[in-house]
Amino acid sequence: MSPLADNQWFTEVFDRHGSAFSLKVSEKLLDVQSAYQHLEVYATETFGNLMVLDGCVMLTDRDNFLYHEMIAHPALFTHQQPERVVIIGGGDCGTLKEVLRHPSVQHVTQIDIDEEVTKAAERFFPALVDANDDPRAELLFADGVKWVDEAEDESIDVLIIDSTDPVGPAEGLFKTEFLTRCHRILKPGGVMVQQSESPLYHSGSIIRELRRDMREAGFSSVATLPFPQPVYPSGWWSVTLAGKQCSVESFREEAVAEHTMPLQYYTLAAHRGALTLPPFMRQALDET
Ligand code: SAM
Predict the structure, then answer these.
(1) Which of 69, 159, 183, 287 has its CA 20 to 30 A from that of 45?
(2) What total of structural domains would you count in the chain?
(3) Which has the minimum average pLDDT: 119-123, 161-165, 179-183, 194-198?
(4) Domain span at residue 166?
(5) What is the atom index within ligand 1 of the atom nearest the CA of 145?
């Protein structure tokens, strides 16, 4: 029998792609069926704690900085003066922590459908929640689709969709109608960013469709930024930015060069490099 089949390993199988990812675990710390999803937390041997939702890896202590820095900083440094920020999903609070590093930000509302995710982060990922008592942060537990539906027109500078995959509760977050409403609630010059799955597995499908739908929703400019993410399918992930009456292909380079935030991945060169899509992606996106 393969050693991966014993219960010392957590394995996520990506059946459609004929691949899988495993981490050696030492203990199961939490197993909760919430009203929305099955939530598990494991202690692993080499990646710290691991959070899993409906069998899919969400994050580990060791590499979550890659995702959280890349979903937050490119969008915030693209916007000219981000003050009012909204995060849909993101219940682990890692994105919130990155957003709060920006001194121009005056208020951040995070809306996750599932409070159990935040409770688990508070217990097992204390480093991610240590900015939650910042007076600029507001945590709500509700359906992000409904929240966006009811939000005021042109009231937000940066909108971050830090969701699970486009199945289950997050399905509505990838629909054209939702993107149209996101466009409506952004101020002119506003920037939206959405986690957009694997460049290798999804460039010709989810990413291409998301970019098309963003343009159809009225966004004037769209950019997909790939970055490494060892624990996600294919080991590689992406975020897609969209600008309302502004370009997301340029950003405040001087501000990036001068900031003093203690970041571990995001740099001027990382942002510039991520904006240059590899030829295979451009081809799959039908944008050669
Ligand atoms: N980094 C992760 C990834 O790409 O796999 C996402 C992390 S974060 C934990 C995803 C969050 O999205 C979950 O906490 C889930 O509860 C939330 N979520 C899913 N659908 C949602 C919805 N309709 N409204 C608000 N939050 C939602």
Answers:
(1) 69
(2) 2
(3) 161-165
(4) 64-284
(5) 23
